[in-house]
Amino acid sequence: MERRIYQDSKTAYLIIEPESDISDSLSLNMMKNNKIQCLLDMECRYVDNNLVLYYKIQGLQCMKEYIAEYNLDYNTAKQLYLDIVQAIINGEEFFLNENLYVLDLEYIYWDKKNKRAKLCCIPGWHGDFQQDIKKLAEDIIQYINHSDKISEMFIYGIYNLIADNGFIISYIKSYIKEFVPDEELSGKHEIFNTKENQKLPEYNTGTVSGTTLEEPVKTGRTNPDAVYNGYGKITKKYMLYIDKASLPLSNYKKGRNYIYLSDICNNKKENHYEISIGRCKKCDIILPFSIISRYHAVIYITDGKFYIEDTNSSNGTYINGQKIPANVKTLCSYTDTISFAGINCHINDR
């Protein structure tokens, strides 16, 4: 689609020539007769009997040009995505489908005076919202001031959230609401933090048979492979691995990407263990990312089986790409991919 700018004696316009006949479309009639917040104002004109759409851009600057000139700070990035969310939510009231929005930096305009973004919505446009919003985040990442860790963290969190198909616009709204640009999320953590922040101990393993260790090796310390269940048996040492590629920030890749669950299985409840996961420092496993809720999920270990429970997190917990219901213990296996708001993990035994 060719981007054309037209300037008359008073006003500047972005000009779009529809590729098909949209004169009778519902979306066109809705946009002609209503001013919708966060959308560029549109006029319909006929040139040589062909419908041409004129979008008013007087006093606005193309977003691509704006962030190339000024870079993209946290406040601008936050407002940009707030306005994208608001535009789509507002459009729903006027029967505008999310695939009608051109999510491209050349078609998004920034109001420098009011510090707001305006989107271009084209009746008859056949976009792919899921792919387009992902591509938009990829384009924005190129313009981030990477010395500004807050804006970097924010946009990588957005990208991580929308990297997989199937997300909905309310996820971004929840993410923005929960994002906390403070020292707790400043990038000073390892991939995993635990309450004890302990290093991995040296150890030897016993002979593995089935799901138990036949004989703990005597090393003068508690065997770190030992996880005692309610019946006093010693089960294998289980490890939680994180997929580094799914992390919001690349500088976390230097950290450790696994943790021994048995090292932190201190929360014994009757015949099972509970391991809490979240952003809060009180959790057993801390994932210091703003897309993670303060108390996100719980892992249950009982008789060699694992269950995951999402504790009503904002961005959800998934098993093999399927969102699990909140506050329900869901059985998972070693072949499953467990995702906490898009951060992919696996549980292995050794």
Protein topology:
Blueprint: E1 4-7, E2 12-16, H1 26-33, E3 42-47, E4 50-56, E5 61-62, H2 63-70, H3 74-92, E6 109-111, E7 116-118, H4 129-141, H5 149-162, H6 169-178, E8 193-194, E9 208-209, E10 212-213, E11 227-228, E12 234-235, E13 238-242, E14 258-260, E15 268-269, E16 272-278, E17 285-286, E18 297-302, E19 305-310, E20 317-319, E21 322-323, E22 330-332, E23 338-340, E24 343-349
Parallel strand pairs: 16-17
Antiparallel strand pairs: 1-2, 2-4, 3-4, 5-6, 6-7, 8-17, 9-10, 11-12, 13-14, 13-24, 15-16, 16-18, 18-19, 19-22, 20-21, 20-23, 23-24
Percentage of residues assigned to helices: 10-25%
From the spread of the alpha carbons, the general shape counts as elongated
Number of helices: 6
Q: Please summarize the sheet with the most strands.
A: 7 strands, mixed
Query: What value does the average pLDDT take?
Result: 78
Topology pattern, helix = H, strand = E: EEHEEEHHEEHHHEEEEEEEEEEEEEEEEE
**In the residues, how many domains can be counted?**
3
At the third CATH level, what is the topology name of the largest domain? Tumour Suppressor Smad4
Number of strands: 24
Per CATH, the class of the largest domain reads Mainly Beta
β-sheet strand percentage = 25-35%
The assigned CATH architecture of the largest domain is Sandwich
| Rg estimate, integer Å | 25 Å
